[in-house]
Amino acid sequence: MAEAAKKSEERYEEKDKILEYAYSRFIAEGFFRTTMDELANELGVSKKTIYKYFPSKEKLVEDIAEGIISQTKCDMEEVIDAKTDVVSKFVKILDVYNSKIIRCSEKWYRDLQIHTPHIWKRIEKIRSEKIYESLGKLIKQGKREGLIAGYPPEIVITSFIAMVRSVMNPDFIMQNKFSMKEAFEYSFEMLLNGILTTQGKNKYF
Fold first, then answer.
1. Spatial distance between the Cα atoms of 51 and 48, rounded to a whole number of angstroms
2. How far apart are CA 39 and CA 18, in angstroms?
3. How far apart are the first and last CA of the chain?
4. In which region does residue 85 sit, left (phi positive, over 0), alpha (psi from -120 to 50) or beta (all else)?
5. Cα–Cα distances in Å, from 52 out to 4, 35, 49?
6. Which residue in 128, 114, 14, 131 sits closest to 61, CA to CA?
7. Which CATH number fits domain 2-204: 3.40.1280.10, 1.10.10.10, 3.40.440.10, 1.10.357.10?
8. Backbone conformation region of residue 197, classed left if phi is above 0, alpha if psi is from -120 to 50, else beta
């Protein structure tokens, strides 16, 4: 039993090492031009070892994307459930998204969009669902606190999702020479300028 547990732990550590290295490499440089041979060489393992845990590079990319999605969702839920006013929550949400976006290069997002469109679509779907859920809760709280104006939540949320989908897009980013961070910050600021009351703006800006 002890030997089996030890081997299981070693396999977990080996898999985790591969995943962490690929994550740092892919989000910085994209993944399309990186081969499994290169990863194996840089990690000092055989390509067979990588395929033992990840049967394809696409599966490796998928696991990295799922990890980012999962961590972002957890961070967001922690912010939404916190016992603070809605403006403080908006500030923390911006920090959460910036911490994730800063780490990921435009090459990562572009490779997802072009070479693994099914993963990109899943990211967009989850992002839209999380924005809808989170903004709905924040708008209700903000109205109770007198910090958010009385616009219909459905219109506010749908408009913001459409804006994010348009500007947080690799093609838009490259054509207009924005960074992902700048695109999100401008979109977020436009949202808050539109929905915060004077009292809310005084707390935020």
1. 5
2. 8
3. 59
4. beta
5. 18, 16, 5
6. 114
7. 1.10.357.10
8. beta
Task: Please tell me the pTM assigned to this model.
Answer: 0.84
CA distances from 190 to 17, 28, 57, 187 (A): 41, 28, 38, 5
- In tens digits, what is the pLDDT along the chain, a chain of 205 residues? 555 444 555 667 899 999 999 999 999 999 999 999 999 999 999 999 999 999 999 999 999 999 999 998 899 999 999 999 999 999 999 898 888 777 888 899 999 999 999 999 998 899 889 889 999 999 999 999 999 999 999 999 999 999 988 888 878 887 888 888 888 889 999 999 999 999 999 988 8
Mention every residue, 6+ apart, whose C-beta is less than 8 A from residue 19: 53, 60, 63, 64, 67
Residue 33 near residue 111, CB atoms below 8 Å: no
Are 119 and 65 within 8 A, CB to CB? yes
CA 5/CA 1 separation, integer angstroms? 6
User: What's the token pair of residue 61?
Assistant: 């990319």
Instruction: Report residue 66 as tokens.
Output: 């799922």
Q: Who contacts 93 (Cβ-Cβ below 8 Å, separation ≥6)?
A: 76, 79, 134
Take residue 121 and report the two structure tokens written for it.
């679509």
